């Protein structure tokens, strides 16, 4: 079962184990899942993660350049690099910026467009999420943001500490956003009005399509 799904890249072996767990259910034991998770691409050292993710982007860019398709991705361009670089490992800002810029360079010939979703009051948004999600999620996210990397280095703790880390992440995201030389738009969904949000998104896309 595993060997049929393994993709060999140089000396590395990639396995879509989360998809396999969903597909095979109990046949894919929790013990096996947890063992593989320890070597998840986002559990690897930062430099190794950059190497493997860049390889995946290169592979995608080669395929997408020949396709007459529109691809939509969520989180993987800015959020994921900042999460592993800043939140998990507390890497230097320049290394994190270079990570995003490396990916941007790889996909530049695809004429990408970046949509950055933002809110006016980050603290309100986070506290709203804490109320709406399970206690386990809330505990997990606060722990992830404060007990490692940037949060731990700056002695942040609890809900207030997690908010401080989120604010720092947002500041770096916006700095990177301003540096990027690609089509890009900010979408503000502070009011949580889905129809207004949909209309705003449509308008932004229309503007970019005619540029």
UniProtKB/TrEMBL annotation:
NCBIfam families: PRK06761.1. It comes from Bacillus cereus. This is Putative Cytosolic Protein.
